Amino acid sequence: MVEGSIEYSKIKNIDAPFTELFSLLKCYENLTTKSPSLVYNSNELRVIHQHTDNAIAILLHGLQGIGHLMGMAQPNKKNIEEISQLGFFIDAIANLTEALNDLRSDANHVLEERAVMNY
């Protein structure tokens, strides 16, 4: 593997597809400090930060609604499969939320490093 490149040929966590996808979408470079930093300019990072905050809020609100509906459901033989499918969907939404939070944290860190105020 060449220095600075990322190994893309293997899926590291098949149960977390959004985390995998977002790790591939993050563009890093090693600065003089030798620590990786997102390549995006500060305006792009502000937009990433804002949109990830909004997306996380929407996902969490939706999960709360699904949880409420599941709590009210009366399980029976007919809807057990549907409830199981909802469980897989909730797992995927939770992974997406985690991936978005990681991206937001990385953007926040870089903005703080650059001393960009009011993001």
Question: What descriptive keywords fit this protein?
Answer:
single chain; mainly alpha; two-stranded antiparallel ribbon; elongated
Describe the structure.
The protein has 119 residues and is mostly helical. The chain has one domain. The chain is 62% helix and 5% strand. It has 3 helices and 2 strands. It has helices spanning 17-25, 42-72, 80-113, and strands spanning 28-30, 36-38. Strands 1-2 form a two-stranded antiparallel ribbon. α1 (17-25) packs parallel to α3 and α2 runs antiparallel to α3. The chain is elongated. It starts with 16 loop residues before the first helix and ends in a 6-residue tail after the last helix.
Brief write-up:
62% of the residues lie in helices and 5% in strands. With 119 residues, it is mainly α. Mean pLDDT is 79; it is low at 1-5.
Show the helix and strand layout.
Blueprint: H1 17-25, E1 28-30, E2 36-38, H2 42-72, H3 80-113
Antiparallel strand pairs: 1-2
Helix pairs in contact: 1-3, 2-3
Strand order of the largest sheet: 1-2
**What is the total tally of β strands?**
2
Q: Please describe the biggest sheet, giving its number of strands, its sense, and whether it closes into a barrel.
A: 2 strands, antiparallel
Low-confidence stretches: 1-5
The Rg value, from CA coordinates, equals 19 Å
Helical element count?
3
Helical content (DSSP H or I, runs of 4+)? 55-70%
Q: What percentage of the residues does DSSP assign to strands (E)? A: 5-15%
Supply the helix-strand structural class.
Answer: mainly alpha
Shape: elongated
Mean pLDDT comes to 79
How far do the termini sit from each other?
Answer: 36 Å
Tally of structural domains: 1
Following the backbone from N to C, one meets helices and strands in this order, namely HEEHH
